[in-house]
Write a structure and sequence with these properties.
Elements (H helix, E strand, L loop, with lengths): L3 E4 L5 E3 L10 E9 L8 E6 L4 H5 L11 E5 L12 E4 L11 E4 L9 E6 L11 E5 L11 E4 H4 L2 E4 L10 E5 L9 E6 L15 E5 L1 H5 L14 E4 L5 E4 L10 E6 L8 E6 L2 E4 L2 E5 L4 E6 L10 E4 L15 E6 L18 E5 L17 E5 L25 E2 L7 E8 L12 E6 L32 E5 L10 E4 L7 E9 L5 E7 L24 E6 H6 L2
Length: 553
């Protein structure tokens, strides 16, 4: 199957932050799985966590506004709006409000879904307790379109971390059926939990489970327009707490709801512990191979853990920089195989991103930090799916089939699954979307798109080094070759930092991805570091429809 190359300028819909703010990183989180105003159409929320870590770590002054925010876009009969109906602001002290966004399935019973925005650095980058803000769904007459809600004043309720440094809210996942009471449940990751040493480097991590029935007794029944004083709760009210094993595990960095994969009531879910130190979303060094644990709603820190998966590439005792970050990203919710003849078996499978995976490890010139996606059968976690040929190399070559091809491309930085859009004929087996945030090519020349002014590359250059890529892979593939390869628009865009996929507001299947470091080239020549005149890394979110992708020659 030949790979079709696509560029960011060929998107069907484009979202940009309004106004442009320096380091906005618009697109850090994306969700279109809820109906906030109860009109029967899907709505969309996009987070921009405004992270200045990259500037500060480079010795440059932080001259940007410190505001973090999320934008809500309403769906309708003509499609998803491209102008936000509401903007939600954090507390303005680098709290990373907008790091994770999502919806809860109608917690209050009023026919509207609730909006969730996390701020894992709340109240600031020094203390990082973390907060999760929940905004009840609202009828349109209860708010003024175009207005701004300040989270600390307008949230319906807030759940706050209990321990300094725990980064409560670093991951989020929700499901109505996590425990079998038909109420809206959700999980919150706190990968900095259990900070016990003097240097604040414990980071074993925890995950907190909150069940809708319990929350209903603690929070208000509905919103009072325009804003109601929020109810403040603490992480200690959680119905379920799950724990990492050791220092620097970062357990809770990634979460995925798998669905019911056994005969017991309730849904199973996976928790990633990539054992990777992070700096502005990118890895700095590794302490181990990383692992993933699969739980159900009844598990706790002291409970029996049904499944544990571990990365293949461990860190030798004398060199703790060689692990693979297994569990950095997770996805599930679809079935691509595991049954007789490799066909689907009706049990959802698990996709695990390992962004520091080395291809051909053990040979003289391995591909360092290429990244990989491991795929496991939900019915039998010892079975790996996507059968094919192992990467060439020594006899002990890795068994994973989806892997990067360049040094430090971080294949598997983000993962999503979706209905089948590729294959001839369509096999009906779901497809896989993989983001590689540091991928790209110095020779990615595209003549379909107009030249981009202000770029240091030739006028026909549309992507370039570190533009980032998104791959759409046929779930029935024998070797992981992508059917579509989408490049970011410009060098260093970071396309693929976040990906989402699925039915997009009734308009068809779509792939949505962020290039959160995108900067407007018109500002390239203006005064450096001026936060008003020269906003950089404002970010963009791209929507690609399946029918339009398939129509590309």
């Amino acid at each position: 199957m030949a790979t079709k190359t696509v560029y960011g300028c060929q998107r069907n819909v484009l979202y940009e932050p309004v106004p442009l703010l320096n380091n906005d990183h618009f697109g850090a989180a994306i969700s279109f799985t809820g109906d906030w105003n109860g009109d029967g159409y899907q709505d969309q929320v996009i987070g921009g966590h405004n992270d200045a870590t990259k500037l500060l770590s480079s010795g440059l002054p932080d001259m940007s506004p410190s505001l973090s925010r999320a934008a809500l876009y309403l769906g309708g009969h003509s499609g998803m709006a491209t102008t936000p109906v509401l903007t939600f602001n954090g507390n303005g002290t680098r709290d990373q409000f907008g790091e994770r966004v999502g919806f809860l399935s109608d917690l209050t019973g009023d026919g509207r879904d609730e909006l969730v925005v996390t701020a894992p650095n709340w109240p600031n980058q020094s203390t990082r307790y973390g907060r999760v803000y929940v905004f009840y769904g609202r009828a349109e007459e209860t708010y003024t379109p175009g207005s701004t809600f300040v989270a600390a004043q307008c949230a319906s309720f807030i759940i706050q971390g209990d321990v300094e440094g725990q980064r409560f809210g670093d991951a989020f996942a929700s499901s109505r059926d996590l425990n079998p009471d038909a109420a809206s449940d959700f999980l919150i990751g706190a990968p900095g939990s259990n900070v016990t040493d003097d240097d604040g480097l414990g980071y074993s991590g925890q995950v907190y489970g909150f069940f809708g029935a319990t929350l209903a007794s603690l929070v208000p029944a509905g919103p009072t327009p325009p804003c109601n004083p929020p109810v403040l709760l603490y992480a200690s009210i959680a119905d379920q707490v799950l724990c990492g094993e050791d220092q620097d595990d970062r357990f809770g960095h990634a979460l995925a709801i798998m669905g019911n994969i056994d005969t017991d009531a309730g849904f199973e879910f996976a928790v990633g512990a990539p054992q990777v130190k992070l700096d502005s979303g990118l890895p700095r060094n590794m302490d181990g191979p990383g692992y993933v644990k699969v739980f159900d709603y009844a598990n706790t820190c002291a409970g029996v853990i049904p499944k544990t998966l571990q990365g293949e590439q461990g860190a030798p005792p004398d060199d703790k920089s060689l692990g693979e970050a297994f569990g950095f990203a997770l996805a599930s919710g679809v079935d691509i195989g595991g049954g007789a003849g490799g066909l689907p078996d009706t049990i959802n499978d698990l996709f695990v991103g390992a962004i520091l995976f080395d291809v051909e490890r053990g040979v003289s010139t391995p591909t360092i930090d290429a990244g990989a996606v491991h795929v496991f059968s939900g019915a039998n976690f010892s079975m790996r799916l996507l059968p094919g040929v192992d990467p060439p190399g020594p006899a002990e070559a890795e068994v994973t089939r989806l892997f990067g091809t360049k040094d430090m491309m971080f294949y598997g930085f983000s993962i999503a699954t979706m209905a089948d859009i590729v294959g001839v004929p369509f096999a009906g087996i779901p497809d896989i979307v993989v983001g590689s945030v540091r991928d790209g090519s110095e020779n990615s020349v595209e003549t379909v798109c107009p030249p981009i002014l202000g770029t240091p590359w030739p006028t026909t250059e549309q992507a370039g080094l570190l533009s980032g890529t998104v791959r759409i892979i046929d779930g029935a593939t024998p070797d992981g070759t992508p059917h579509f390869l989408i490049f970011g628009e410009r060098p260093r865009d970071g396309l693929g930092f976040e990906v989402a996929a699925g039915a997009y507001d009734g308009n068809g299947i779509a792939i949505v991805s962020a290039g959160l470091r995108w900067s407007d080239p018109e500002f390239e020549a203006c005064v450096p570091l001026d936060p008003v005149l020269c906003p950089r890394e404002t970010g963009r979110v791209y929507v690609f429809y399946a029918d339009a992708l398939n129509a590309i020659p």
